[in-house]
Amino acid sequence: MGQKEKMVEAIIEEIQMRSEYLDGLIVETIYIGGGTPSVLSSSEVRRIINACKESNRLSGQIELTLEANPDDLTRDKLQSFYDAGINRLSIGVQSFQEEDLTWMNRSHDSSQARQCIEESFKIGIDNFSIDLIFGSPTTSNDVWASNLQIAADYGVKHVSCYALTVEEDTALDHFIKNKKTKAIDDETAQKQFQTTMEILQSNGYIHYEISNYCLPGYSSRHNANYWNRVPYLGIGPSAHSYSGIERSWNIAHNAKYLADIGNSILPISKELLSPKDLYNEYIMTGLRTAKGIDLEYISSIEIGYKQHFLNEAKTYTDTHEIKRQDNIYTLSKDAWIISDKIISDLFI
Asked: Would you say the pTM of this structure is higher than 0.90?
């Protein structure tokens, strides 16, 4: 048995071992993602879905998403995923421009980026999201505007737009330090963030979270559950779970994960969330969305947190970077580009 097959078997075993975790809650969404799950066969995807059905109560209107790379999504593969039950895709397009994709060292080319979108529509999976990356040295303002307009012209239902980030000790970090490629230009990234809002909103997209845009009725239900603090169960190496009061995570080592599951051991670490944790996570997730945060919920976490929030938020409410309507506080659209700073200033 190959490593991929062993991992599928272990994932199914863990689903069965953790059948009581959600305590009878109806599962509204399943997201098969992290890594490249599109390398799975349709039969393997079907087995994982069936294991979820056998161990949990699934909604009759479940959102079932598969994360995929464009070069994996041939028409036959798309059809097989659709037949297995997948009704939503999250596709790592990144760019429609060849120069961008080469610089990002992506395994697909621009024609594959376009083809997978066209084929998805043809077979009936019209509910899908694409990821696009801005801020790279090869992505000029005109190129970025073109990427956005192509997505809008296709009628892609959901677009996630992320600024390129440089993680320490990565190949990109090494290339920049050794002047083999240009550093990320923050001013260009900020301008392209503004361009994203302008172009997508002018094409009818709703900007419902800092990085996420959708046509009406096509927001990601799965992501919304994270932001709304709905309990969730994560399966597989490195997967995280959340019960409402406790967070847990699996070991981030494939071989050790397989060994533990093979010995009927759950390779999990846990932490009980303190009131401070709950407050900080609420601020972090809530202010990233158009829905914002509710002052009354802050009051319910711990006495004194409401006043802390009001004190720290005053600077930003005075400048209108944080807006208030009754007890709901949201970031202004102009402030979303500096959301990380604002959110960190509100932490306890």
From this structure: yes
